From TrEMBL:
SUPFAM superfamilies, sorted: Acetyl-CoA synthetase-like
Organism: Yoonia rhodophyticola
Top-level taxonomy: Bacteria, Pseudomonadati, Pseudomonadota, Alphaproteobacteria, Rhodobacterales
Domain of life the protein comes from: Bacteria
GO-annotated molecular function: ligase activity
Keywords: Ligase
Full protein name: Phenylacetate--CoA ligase family protein
Amino acid sequence: MTAYYDDLETRSADARAADHLARLKVLIAMVQDHVGSCFPAGDVTDLSDLAKFPVLRKSTLHDWQQTNPPFGGVAMGDFTHVFQSPGPIYEPGGSTHDWWRFGRFLHACGIGKTDIVQNCFGYHLTPAGSMFENGARAVGAKVLPAGTGQTALQVQAAKDIGTTAYAGTPDYLKVILEKADEMGVKLGLTKAAVSGGALFPQLRSYYADRGIDCLQCYATADLGHLAYETMPGEGMVVDEGVIIEIVTPGTGDPVAAGDVGEIVVTSLNPDYPLIRFATGDMSAVMEGSSPCGRTNMRIKGWMGRADQTTKIKGMFVRPEQVATLVTQTGADRARVIADRDGDADKMIVQLEGADLDQNAAASAVQSVLKLKGEVTCHAPGTLPRDGLVIEDRRTYET
């Protein structure tokens, strides 16, 4: 097996940017020319121009699909499957080579032509099972379409056919191994490709102690494979078929390198081009390149959810409102803090920027948030860069 899935993984940053820009221009033109398109006019001459376009949120896509089923009038290419995820949201799926791009991750896991993959992701309605099967085919592996549940039968099948690799959620592999121990069955699993849940360090160590190398990837039903581990503790390398931005929650504004923000993805798949699709997940860019030799940007993995909507004094405060507050006050950034004053809610609004007008800021807070609160102004670079625009400090212990 070669060290890398293809030459794309080790190309220069300039070569990658040029390729992505060329593909992005084609996709934007296709989306804009599509009948009934809601995508605004505009062109890109640099990848940074993406920030000029609006963020597409899952709630908006859901509304489009309800009005114009099943895919909301989004420009489409060739597809062979239709999946349903909670919402409901409908996603297309393809059968061509590595349509969802999971082959890259499975290759990094060491899975190839000599392996039989026990695919324990679901095959019904949701796309995860098909995603990993398509990726396994891309690397030449054979697949046991196991799905979830019936653990004793899974153990028996793994023993009888000699599965060597597991694909599924991080915790279900442990269930299979413990059931095998209970049945007195020795399994030949040595590799694990996991997603869809947290891979805690102690769980990874448990698998390592049993001779199983376990790596995780980040993916969504809408977009497919987005980023993947190549070795533990070194973050996740971004997939070559997407462009990832990290933005301030509630806005489309990119954060500074290294700051925590919401993951926004542009898929370069011409069969289902989603441009600036907000995942609702938080992460941050890692500095430098991976020691494995892959040169694409790395992210730190999942760092929480971006929807920080919080109820204060009976009123919801949303990230979008905080973004409006930043615009109206001329601040560089803002942070709304929900706290308690005795038995009552208390709101503190921190604004960061130069030469801010305290009185005007207080007026803007009341106008935008519809609440009164303590307003404090801070020098540039003062507020935390942790991705929070709304922080809830309240505790409810009696």
